[in-house]
Each structure stands twice: as C-alpha cells, then as structure tokens.
C-alpha cells in the first residue's frame, strides 16, 4: 500500500518543519511521499524547507520521498492542496495542517482501517491539544446557529445547537460516521479525492473542508476513527481576527448556496 500526505505552508517554517519531521519519523509501515506546498510565504518558508531537505533536516527514510513545491502566489488552502493532484499515485492520501504532529504511525493505522472498510472514502483520527486535552471539533454538517455560537459564545441559548454540531449526543469512543471532516487532518481514498476534483478552489480559506466532505460523501462514507490520535495546535485565527471571520462568513454563505441552508 502506498501513502501520500500534503502540508500547505504559509509562513511558520519552524512549525511546518516539525510537522513534516513527525510524519517522516512516525510513518514506517508503508511507503509515503510527503508533499510540502509553500503558498508564496513572505517569510521565505518555502526556500527554507527546500534547504532543510538538502541539509538532511528533512531526511526521507526507506520508501519515503519528500517533494517541496514553492508557489509564486498564494492561491489559498484548497489551491495549494490541489496543486499536487496530478502527481498522486497513492492508495490513501492525507491532508495535514502545519500545526499537526504525529506521535505514532497514525497514517498507516488510518489507511489500514479504511482499507478494511471499503465504504470509507474519508476519515480522521481524534485530535488533542499539545497538553493532551481532547479537542471538540464539528462532526455534523455546517449549520448557522452553532457557527454563530462559536463566534459569539455569549449566545448561550444556542449552546445545545453547538453540542449537537459536535455530536456530543453520540458515543465518540468508537468509529462513527460523520458529516464534517476537518481539513486539519483528513485521510482520503486517493482515487475518490481525484475523482471529485479535490478542493473547490473558490474557497480561499475556511469552510473548504466542509465542502470537500460533502463532495466525498457523494461517493461513500466519512468516519471519525477515535482510536487513533494526533496533536493539533489549533490556532483558530477566525476566532481572533475580523478578516478571517469575514472570510469564514462569506464562505459559509457560498457553502449554503451549494449544499443547502441549515439553521
């Protein structure tokens, strides 16, 4: 079985380097090609990553390959990931954020699980903060009330809607079908990912992972597989700054237009 993984980078060389190193260090059971796509980082992260490969800081092990692409313009998250679509010849592909760190052979584990479940076209593991605290991420389709609550937690009367969005009313200690697979860590069946055309590039940033999940669900099922775990720093820029929040809002409207409004 062949694996591939892609990390799209925009600034933050040190974090991206650490993420890439953990992928190479932990993924041992199957051959893996790791793609690093730099989205024209002003801080020179792309060239630094190329140098890290040349200097051996990103040393590929047996059966491993590291490919760095430096884009000349920032086309957004989805465009960066789609850049490598023509190159993919793996069985399973992993979409990873630069703030992900592996502590086990999670890529191989998820690939094995998906191979044993032919209906699975997309899956993700449990994610935890660097201190080990579990993260609660959306698992049901995007809906307006929980997303507003997550931006404005003073709307406490909608907390129940957010709990439903997080599927807290379900047993999340076992594999379970979900409707939203976060782009911070997603495993996809490569043939299906290519068949749906990858990400919709009209989403520059935010909600593109929710859109991709719905595209993948037209071809099969999407799962949370909680027995496997990875670290996710989860910077949550949209919850801190106005501009990312506006991007997220605009993309949510685009998503609702495409997939139907959910209150």
TrEMBL record:
Coiled-coil ranges per UniProt: none
Organism domain of life: Bacteria
Residue span(s) of domain Glycosyltransferase 2-like: 4-195
UniProt-recorded Gene Ontology molecular function terms: glycosyltransferase activity
Presence of the UniProt keyword Transferase in the record: yes
One Pfam short name: Glycos_transf_2
Enzyme Commission code: 2.4.-.-
Keywords, alphabetical: Glycosyltransferase, Transferase
InterPro entries: Glyco_trans_2-like, Nucleotide-diphossugar_trans
PANTHER family: GLYCOSYL TRANSFERASE, RHAMNOSYLTRANSFERASE WBBL
Protein name, UniProt field: Glycosyltransferase
Organism of this sequence: Faecalibacterium hominis (ex Afrizal et al. 2022)
């Amino acid at each position: 079985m062949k694996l591939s993984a892609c990390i799209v980078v925009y600034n933050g060389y040190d974090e991206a380097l650490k993420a890439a190193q953990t992928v190479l260090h932990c993924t041992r059971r199957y051959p893996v090609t790791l793609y690093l796509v730099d989205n024209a980082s002003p801080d020179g992260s792309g060239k630094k990553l190329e140098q890290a490969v040349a200097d051996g800081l990103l040393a590929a092990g047996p059966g491993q390959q590291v490919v760095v692409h430096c884009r000349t313009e920032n086309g957004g998250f989805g465009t960066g990931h789609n850049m490598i679509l023509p190159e993919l010849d793996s069985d399973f592909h992993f979409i990873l954020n630069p703030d992900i760190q592996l502590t086990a052979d999670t890529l191989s584990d998820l690939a094995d699980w998906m191979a044993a479940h032919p209906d699975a076209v997309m899956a993700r593991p449990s994610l935890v903060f660097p201190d080990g605290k579990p993260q609660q991420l959306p698992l049901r389709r995007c809906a307006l009330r929980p997303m507003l609550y997550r931006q404005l937690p003073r709307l406490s009367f909608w907390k129940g809607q957010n709990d439903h969005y997080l599927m807290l009313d379900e047993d999340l200690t076992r594999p379970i079908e979900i409707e939203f697979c976060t782009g911070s860590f997603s495993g996809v069946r490569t043939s299906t990912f290519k068949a749906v055309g990858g990400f919709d590039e009209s989403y520059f940033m935010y909600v593109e992972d929710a859109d991709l999940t719905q595209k993948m669900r037209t071809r099969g099922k999407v799962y949370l597989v909680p027995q496997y775990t990875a670290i996710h720093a989860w910077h949550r820029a949209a919850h801190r700054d106005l501009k990312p929040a506006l991007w997220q809002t605009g993309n949510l409207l685009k998503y609702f237009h495409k997939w139907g409004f959910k209150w």
